[in-house]
Structures are given as structure tokens and as C-alpha cells.
Amino acid sequence: MVKVSRTRFTVAALWLAIVMLMGTSYFAAQKTAMFILPVLKFLAPHASIRQLNVMHLGMRKVAHATEYGILAVLWFKALVLSARRTPRVAAWGALSVCLLCAFADEAHQSTLPMRSGSARDFVIDSLGAVAALILVQTRRTPPDRPTLLETPIAVETAD
What is the distance between the alpha carbons of residues 87 and 125, in angstroms, rounded to a whole number? Predict the structure, then answer.
């Protein structure tokens, strides 16, 4: 159990490092546009450059929410499976990690010439984390409640 939880924390910490790397100048809009816009132009040949830029921006915002959603789920899993934390405590812990990471990321971006820190991105990051945690919580089966397959089935005889 210790090795499994250590591995989960390692994976969560590695993903956190990747998220922070994505907040550097290497992943600025001008840099990702060099790769994304040609693909979008291929997929939508009649789209104007303005439409392509709007699609690129949309993809970047969806990526923000997704990367923080993944971060939240990884930290939730690591926390809930170690030290016997309740799902509620693990969810709050995972959300705290995500909010701190998002704040640090936006603060860091505000110091970079090719990036800008944005309250809107912080909100998008936070919403991605919250949505993922809600999804994980609603998909969990509490351990004290039997699943449908584990419940006894009453069979009535046909008279």
C-alpha cells in the first residue's frame, strides 16, 4: 500500500511539474500557433484567419481546464488512497493544490514577456479542477453501500 500511494503521489507531482512547464514561454500562444493553426487550416480550409485564431484560443482554454482537471483527479486519487482520508477531505486537498498551482502559474506568467497572468485563466483552471472533482465524486461508489450486483435479488415465484 505504501508503494502504491507513493507512486500515486509521484504521478501527481510529475503532472504538476508538466502543468507548470506549460505555463512557461515555450507554450505561449505565439509558439503553439505555429503548430496548431496549420492543423486548423487543414481541418477548416474556408475559415478566415480570425476564425482560426478564435478556434486556437478556444482550444487553449479547453486545454487549461483539462490540464487542471487531470491534476485534480491525480491529487484526489493520491490523497484518498493514502492515510485513510475521506473523499471529502481528499477533494478539498486536491482542490487546494490546484488553486495554489493555478495562482503560482498565473503569477509566474505575469513576469514573462510572451505571457500574461490572467484572472480569467485562473477561473478557467479552477473550474476545470472543480468539474473533474465533482465528476469523480459522483462516479464513486461508497465502500459501505453495496453495488447493484452485490445486493441479494429476491426472486418471486410465478403462481
Answer: 21
